[in-house]
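Q&A FORM
Asked by: J.P.
Topic: structure of Symplekin/Pta1 N-terminal domain-containing protein

PROVIDED:
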Amino acid sequence: MAGASRDQALALLAAANNHGDLAVKLSSLRQAKDILLAVHPSFAAELFPYLVELQSSPETLVRKSLIEAIEEIGLKAMEHSSILVSVLLVFLRDGDSIIAKQSIVSGTNFFCSVLEELALQFHRHGKVERWLEELWVWMVKLKDAVLAIALGPGPFGVKILAMKFLETYVLHFTSDANDFEKSSIEGSGRAFNISWVVGGHPVLDPASLMSDANRIIGVLLTLLQSASSLSGCLTITVVNCLLVLAWHSLGDVLGSGILGIRLSWVWRVDGLWCLVSYNCAIKFGLLTSFSRCSIVGDGYILVIVVDRSGFHFFVLPKILYQPAD
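REPLIED BY: S.T.
REPLY: Here is the structure written out as tokens.
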């Protein structure tokens, strides 16, 4: 890193950490981030130890801005980003739900990018560099930490994002038959394909990854079976996660967990009677029937219907609602 840029970045990081004015702290962090993004990743990495010192800032906005900076800088300087990812794991346990939620969001983006880079290296060169293997170990730790959040006590907003992370995790490890070239050209937003690593790698073993994905689905199903002990929002989130997994043709991964299963519960939440009814069948990788989640109250219901064209939301008078058999 050029001497002038290094000195400027150090001064800005010091201001972000020590200045008494919050606006100055945030502005200094943004400017320091811009400098670190502009220089070569190896030069930027020299200042990462100073950047991560901001994790002890008492201001929520500074910590949130730090997470956003870590995501941007870390994805550009991925080879040197292990120290940055470790901060995300610390922030998952932050007492402020804003910080925990931002950590899950940024962690999700990091996870997807690292997984794609792993697969690309293995597909193109038949091997994965050591730094990337070490970074993947951090991603596994991240997944385990987010799973613990989903299963443990905590704010609803954080738990909902944790479940969405698990949904993303499972979606990546499917037995999709599409080859590498087709997946890359389509650019569907889910660039990774488990078929890229067929042939085996100690880090990216398809059988192990798909087994873990199946375990996560089992966790979601277990949560759904205990719906009476969950809040309405959390139960709806679990149902929607399972519907998304079914929608994306995960017949092989879902296995006996979803295929042909019919689940329904009734419970009382905040004075409203709520009904979750789940009845889907998967045939040739497509959702062939609909599923719905209904909240009944004040004579009206919210019905969420999933069919081949996507999700549909309806508010209907209760008298018109015909529950599933």
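FOLLOW-UP: The chain is about 55% helix and 15% strand.
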